[in-house]
Design goal:
This is NAD(P)/FAD-dependent oxidoreductase. The protein is 27% helix and 26% strand.
Length: 409
């Protein structure tokens, strides 16, 4: 029986703890926040999208950074195994929604956290306690030093502290500090799955407006980098919501490339069908002011913005709208533009991109190649994926790989 210390009581830490306990190891989980799993509770808007219901090969297509590193871990703990564990062993009924996203039937992230705490079971959970540094001897990690100076020795230490996104939930970059102490390279963290800041004030004028069933396209110059249908939100600084978060992961360097978004407000209609619909509406509203010409087609807060972008006189009659003005309206409804200036900051990103270099970690065991006895799992590693449950799936798979190796040693 080995003694294992896990730093971080999030998804990866608790999953690894449960797997290790069931393999007969003595496990201590140390969490610097007053309670475990805080970030887990806000994932999926509080519903917890815990994985994606697909095979490992399909899963890897949605990993943005270093997918090859995860090949072994994902095949050892694929989504199917995670789903079976939660449903059959932990009693949490699951459902699969659009995009193969997996949620608890209850739509409560708390149910997933409670299940993980049950899974971790008899492990020792220490909260509100920080790990100040690793306990290193003869080039090997043999434990940790806690706040106050106490040394806790162990046969293996797993760092599962997350990245630096949403620091109020406990992701404050402690894992990077510990990894550096052991000699690891840290790939510069940057925000991924984050809101986007507009150049101008088009979105700001519609602040609070949520759009559903629209198609969003991200352009890098003249190249399409992302397009998908779903939901988005206009904010005081730009745009947010599921579609925008997904699009943000495809943005490389905003200083080097020009990025913009276009929104197809009526993706269910062809340009010809939309033109027919507009003509019918204009005929019904022919004697009203142009300010009301889009009342049947667009949300109220978007109508004046659309007309302004078209340069239309809102006081003239609808029957005076020219063919050229109608053409411009149709173009904008199929490709409403938002120019981009920047990404949101790391503090509000769903996921951190960057972290411990995977070149220095064994992909089969998650053990450090530079410091034996030290392991990593989850977001602290330089791996991240698009939205859809993939990032939690990565946390579970890497945690499982580490726990499986402890059993073999």
């Amino acid at each position: 029986m080995a003694k294992i210390i896990i730093v971080g009581a999030g998804a990866a830490g608790l999953f690894a703890a449960g797997a290790a306990v069931r393999r007969g190891h003595q496990v201590t989980v140390i969490e610097h926040m007053p309670s475990p799993g805080r970030k887990l509770l806000i994932t999926g808007k509080g519903r917890c999208n815990l994985t994606n219901n697909c095979a490992p090969d399909e899963f890897l297509k949605h990993v943005r950074r270093n997918p090859r590193f995860l090949y072994s871990a994902l095949n050892g703990c694929p989504p199917e195994r995670v789903m079976r564990l939660f449903e059959q062993e932990l009693g949490v009924p699951l459902k699969t929604e659009r995009g193969r996203r997996v949620f608890p039937v209850s739509d409560r992230a708390q149910d997933i956290l409670s299940a993980l705490l049950d899974w971790a079971g008899p492990c020792e959970l220490i909260t509100d306690m920080s790990v100040e540094e690793l306990y290193l001897q003869d080039g090997r990690c043999g434990g940790v030093k806690l706040r106050g100076g106490k040394v806790c020795k162990a046969d293996a230490v797993l760092v599962a502290t997350g990245g630096v996104s949403y620091p109020v939930t406990g992701s404050t970059g402690d894992g990077y500090r510990l990894a550096k102490q052991a000699g690891h390279t840290i790939v510069e963290p940057e925000p991924s799955l984050v809101s986007l800041v507009e150049r101008g004030n088009v979105a700001k004028r519609m602040m609070g407006l949520s759009l559903r069933n629209v198609s969003l396209t991200l352009w890098e110059g003249k190249k399409v980098r992302f397009t998908e249908m779903g939901e988005m939100l206009f904010t005081h600084f730009g745009v947010s919501g599921p579609l925008v978060l997904s699009a943000s992961a495809h943005i490389r360097d905003l200083k080097k490339y020009d990025y913009r978004l276009t929104i197809d407000l009526k993706p269910g209609l062809t340009p010809q069908q939309l033109e027919k619909r507009v003509k019918e509406d204009f005929a019904l509203l022919s004697n009203r002011e142009t300010a009301h010409c889009l009342s049947k087609l667009l949300p109220a807060s978007m109508q004046p913005v659309m007309l302004d972008l078209c340069g239309m006189d809102v006081h003239k009659k609808v029957n005076q709208i020219t063919r050229e003005e109608r053409r411009r309206l149709l173009e904008l409804m199929k490709a409403f533009p938002i120019e981009l200036k920047d990404k949101g900051d790391l503090a509000h990103a769903v996921v951190t991109s960057g972290g411990v270099s995977v070149k220095e970690v064994d992909p089969k065991t998650m053990q450090s190649k530079v410091c034996p006895g030290l392991y990593f799992a989850g977001e602290v590693l330089d791996v991240d994926a698009y939205t859809g449950g993939y990032n939690l799936g990565i946390a579970f798979a890497t945690a499982w790989a580490a726990a499986a190796h402890w059993c073999e040693e």
